[in-house]
Amino acid sequence: MVPRRAALFSEHQPQPLALPERGAEVDEIKVDRSFVSEMLDNPDDELIVGAIIGLSHNFGRRIVAEGIETREVQDRLIAMGCEVGQGFYYTRPIPRQQALEWAANFSPES
């Protein structure tokens, strides 16, 4: 099943890129890398990420953080309650078959 995304929050847009209609079924909310990658150095970005995580949890939605490039950012996001992350910390973009093989063998400790 493909997740139905409600919004992608980005500093490059004055508002979320896509908002669901009232009552729409939404599985996850994505946080743009523009907030995630700088959140350890920018208190405002960390506050924004925390607020989005909190709202997502309050609405029972999974949160996906984009742009994780270091273990420190990953660890902070986990501590904040983020369930899913993506970024160069895990792997650079790779072809589909290689990605499936990588995912099958992935371990958070590696």
Q: Which CATH architecture? A: Alpha-Beta Barrel
Inertia-based shape: globular
* CATH fold-level topology: TIM Barrel
Number of helices: 4
> How many discrete domains?
1
Low-pLDDT ranges: 1-6
Distance between the termini: 28 Å
Sketch the major β-sheet: 4 strands, parallel
Strand content: 5-15%
The rounded Rg comes to 14 Å
Helix share, percent:
25-40%
Structural category: alpha/beta
Determine the CATH superfamily.
EAL domain
Write down the CATH class: Alpha Beta
The number of E-state strands comes to 4
User: Overall mean pLDDT score?
Assistant: 82
Task: Offer a few descriptive terms.
TIM Barrel; alpha/beta; four-stranded parallel sheet; disordered N terminus
What's the arrangement of secondary structure elements?
Blueprint: E1 5-9, E2 28-31, H1 33-36, H2 43-58, E3 62-65, H3 71-80, E4 84-85, H4 96-105
Parallel strand pairs: 1-2, 2-3, 3-4
How would you explain this protein's 3D organization?
The protein has 110 residues and is α/β, with parallel strands linked by helices. It has one domain: Alpha-Beta Barrel (TIM Barrel), CATH 3.20.20.450. The protein contains 4 helices and 4 strands, in the order ββααβαβα. Helix 3 links the parallel strand 3 (62-65) and strand 4. It is globular.
Concise account of the structure shown:
By secondary structure, the chain is of the alpha/beta class. The protein is 36% helix and 14% strand.
